[in-house]
Amino acid sequence: MKRTIVGAGPRGYVTVDFFTGDYRVSAQINVRNRTVNDILNDKRLSYIEVFDTYISRISQPGYIVGSHHVALLRKDTISFAIVPTGESRPSGQRAYRYGGKLLYQVFLTLPAFEVQGKVRTTGKLDLYAFLVTNVDDFVILTEPVARVASFPDNTFSGEAFLVNRLLVTMFCANEKPERVA
To answer: Fewer C-beta neighbours within 10 Å, C or N terminus of the chain?
Structure first.
């Protein structure tokens, strides 16, 4: 069961699907003049406030177990978030680091998930630097697909994922990147 998830809500709000090891939380997040990337990587916040939330188990993604007007999510428990491409990149001064011309195909594991996608870099991908010394807690994957490890027919995809690198248990990359213009 493949699910493509994108969305834009009222002005200043973006629809995001957040995944933990057990749940999917579909919600609106107020980004104001920031991006979802900025909010997830803001070291001053350990929780994020979300609105119009719909909660489902990753084992039964079509069954809503609860819906609430407002909720708080602990950022360190979010495995990944599915976001529109424009929301995956940082804004302002942080944006200069994301203009790489090489795309590496990667495979990684998170609690309950196997994820495939592409990582953009300016040079050769250094797995250690990417996972261990990266400044951002949430890193960008493009062309992503996540599969629930214990329910392999349940897959999720979208324009981009913001993956919590602190929850990555295995990270693999193809040796040869593809060049992009």
So the answer is: C
